[in-house]
Design brief:
Elements: E1 2-6, H1 11-24, E2 28-30, H2 41-53, E3 59-64, H3 68-74, E4 82-84, H4 88-98, E5 102-106, H5 112-124, H6 131-142
Parallel strand pairs: 1-2, 1-3, 3-5, 4-5
Helix pairs in contact: 1-5, 2-3, 4-5
Length: about 140
């Protein structure tokens, strides 16, 4: 199950991504926002992070205007590794090396076509780079 959330600036892209997830046959839970009324992205980062940390969802997608603020907010939670990606290479690398559990996107930075390609890469790439990366992830989780 994938948790998805966004702020008002990213509502359109979130809808495009949810349609793409439907096409892929992926199950997801939408944590909002649901309107274009101004809202605060940390509120939606918190909801998605809690869904992952509580075991309700395996991965997450967070979207705001640039992807920067919402990824910063998400990374405040121990056990969350949110990666802001604007290309497929970064999405692949963050899954292989960092075992990222949240993909952050900027709605004003990437269009729907590229966003869906990045998402596919993120979802289809396993964590596969072995012990040295597990050691690094453990250090991140310790707060080092």
């Amino acid at each position: 199950m994938i948790a998805i959330g966004c702020d008002h600036a990213a509502l359109g892209l979130k809808k495009e991504i949810m349609a793409h997830l439907d096409e892929r046959g992926e199950k997801y839970q939408d944590f909002g926002t649901y309107t274009e009324e101004s809202c605060d992205y940390p509120d939606y980062a918190k909801k998605v992070c809690h869904a992952i940390l509580d075991g309700q969802c395996d991965k997450g997608i967070l979207i705001c205007g640039t992807g920067i603020g919402i990824s910063i907010a998400a990374n405040r939670f121990k056990g969350i590794r949110a990666a802001l990606c604007g290309d497929c290479f970064s999405a692949k690398a963050t899954r292989e090396h960092n075992d990222a559990n949240i993909l952050a996107l900027g709605a004003r930075v990437v269009g729907p076509g590229l966003a869906c390609q990045i998402l596919d890469t993120f979802l289809d790439t396993p964590f596969s780079e072995g012990p040295r990366h597990k050691q690094r992830i453990a250090k991140i989780d310790e707060g080092v």
